[in-house]
Amino acid sequence: MNPQIKQIVIVGGGSAGWMTAAALSSLLSPKDVSITLVESDQIGTIGVGEATIPDIINFNRLLGIKEADFMKATEATFKLGIKFVDWGRKGHVYTHPFGSHGVDMNGIDFHQYWMHSRAAGNDHPIDDYSLCAVAGLSNKFALPDPNPQNIRSHIRYAYHFDATLYARFLRDYAETRGVRRVEGKVDQIMQAPETGYVTGLKLDNGELISGELFFDCTGFSSLLLGKLMDVPYVDWSHWLPCNSVQAVGCTHAGPLVPYTQSTARPAGWQWRIPTQRRTGNGHIYCREFMSDDEAVSILLSNLDGEPLGAPRQIRFKAGHRREFWVKNCVAIGLSSGFLEPLESTSLYLIQEGISRFIALFPDATLPEVVRDEYNRHMRTEFEQVRDFIILHFAATERDDSPFWNYCRNMSLPDSLNHKIDLFRQTGRTFRYEEELFSKASWIAVLLGQGITPQSYDPIVRNLPQTTVSESLESMRLAMIKEAGRMPTHADFIKSYCPSGNL
Ligand SMILES: Cc1cc2nc3c(=O)[nH]c(=O)nc-3n(C[C@H](O)[C@H](O)[C@H](O)COP(=O)(O)OP(=O)(O)OC[C@H]3O[C@@H](n4cnc5c(N)ncnc54)[C@H](O)[C@@H]3O)c2cc1C
Question: What is the reported pTM?
Fold first, then answer.
């Protein structure tokens, strides 16, 4: 048997660093493996990252975290999906709800029946058949019912939270399980001369930290993979041209909504994410099409409440490191790549990086085949998420600004072109290779962005339209009735997980 890894070092204590530390410490005993996390208060963390997708629930469950405790500690609210405003065209609104639309029948997707009823004059948008969309848009929330026969079992949710508080919460968790936290700035990185493997770090206070396996969780500075190893960055800015953000919190105004709102702007888009204490806002834009001053002015004139400080500017470039794991260094989080938070996927990609590492947990020889498999998997994950995000920009009728003209006319990855063509011609879409986004997600955004199928399922087309329309109408009314029974989102939080800031 090959020797086991005994010393793991995590460099960086943002969400990526502490999620990695928490997950590893939940599985490894400090008697067998020492885990050290180095972070620098002087450098700090990115401090944004408030919206998530339902997969985060699995991550917290894996750690054995109680939901209400975590929600109180991170001032979290619930998220049932994303409301997109002005994306496909100005004045148009659609949602990308979690969960499905309606109920599939006879093994055929629900949206095929919906298209059949549209052909007979039904003008209800597909959102009206999603319990998450109907409840979310009326500011209602309830946890899913475990009984699949119950309509409430259709609820799927995620959270909005304060990412800094999440990292702090996970720090407590990891330290309790033996992770050693070291405060200090990495000044020097030592490598074995013959292999280039990292052997240790020297901190600005002179302390030496040695290890066998290193996680690079140093954020955009990408200390190990980027600066030290010079792993090239795969640049996707020709497909995702936004490269800047102005972010600011504001006070709450109006009801506490259980969804993220994303509003398209002339050179990008603006998010609105409510946590228990405040609403997070950010205006993401492309500097080639808009000045920083104009971006700030648009952000500030579109806040619900009073700004809590001055906007903070962050620059980024869409893409990822060509390899995620090189020698004995694994990049997780912003150090490995970044895709704008339009579908709240960054924390998910961190989670996926950690889970895939655990699934491939190597011995101390760190076999090359294991690294190759990890890199293949993470590349595919990034590419699949990339395609889904590009869809929002490319499938648009907007022609009111040079930015949207660029997006509407840009050439697309072949993989995305294929999905769009298949849906446009046949009304069909499929989930490929453990893809993150479900069919229901693709359908919500394809339809929402204005791609209307030219045809639909021939089996459904032969069914009597009145029968189909009646069955859809009863589903639609059942959604409204069920949402009506739920408490408001704010009331649910007050009784389930109050942080004292609502
Ligand atoms: C504008 C924006 C909005 C976002 N919104 C979302 C969202 O809604 N949903 C979502 O899932 N994700 C979102 N993200 C992404 C999310 O914020 C990050 O993926 C996540 O917080 C992880 O960041 P990180 O830990 O990789 O980096 P950071 O938070 O930057 O942490 C880096 C760590 O490395 C340490 N470090 C760096 N250099 C050194 C050094 N020399 N020595 C010692 N320590 C060092 C720092 O001190 C820090 O602890 C967003 C990102 C941006 C930029």
Answer: 0.97
